[in-house]
Amino acid sequence: MKKKKIAIFVSGSGTNCENIIQHFAGSNLVEIALVWSNRQDAYALKRAEKYNIPTIVMGKNDFNDADKVLPILKDYDIDFIVLAGFLLMIPDFLVRAYDHRMVNLHPALLPKYGGKGMYGHHVHEAVKAAGEQETGMTVHWVSEVCDGGEIIAQYKTPITPEDTPDDIADKEHVLEMEYFPKVIEQVLREQ
Question: Which residues contact 158 (CB under 8 A, 6 or more apart)?
């Protein structure tokens, strides 16, 4: 069986990226073939280089150009895309090209706290401001609607009124580290 080649799209520090790389190290199912970022200074690129995984950096304007993006994915023979803290909107041509072959991690229980501007700390601040008693993570298919794709899996954690947005972020991040690679693996096994 041919290994599925995955590209991980990142914008930041890359803790999820590295966790996914480690999860699939030695896998007979998956090869992490590429780490793609919109930011040259994303620490995730250094994490990828540590594992000798090729990296691409492409700014927003070029990223919205199908003639620049799709040939690179074809050159690397990418079967599946994982968004792990990637902060650009995914252009429609890419959603269509990777229909049900691209997943995103969102740091809240969608459909709550999703959509444009709801990323990173903004999400955890909104959860705190609303007085929620739980938060969690959502893995979903990427669609043309920001955070609107079909939900694949959700995991929850309780939060208290005393929790700060940083505390909420830490609790939610524990879920990401434990479950995100497992959900990706399950999705790939079912394809």
Answer: 133, 134
- 141/152 Cα distance (integer angstroms): 7
Give the pLDDT confidence score for residue 24 in this predicted structure: 97
Quick: pLDDT tens for 156-188: 999 999 999 999 999 999 999 999 999 999 999
* pLDDT < 50 regions, the chain: none
What is this structure's pTM? 0.96
Chain mean position to CA 40: 18
Catalytic residue IDs = 106
Q: What's the confidence (pLDDT) of residue 102?
A: 98
Rounded to an integer, what distance in angstroms lies between the CA atom of residue 116 and that of residue 88? 10
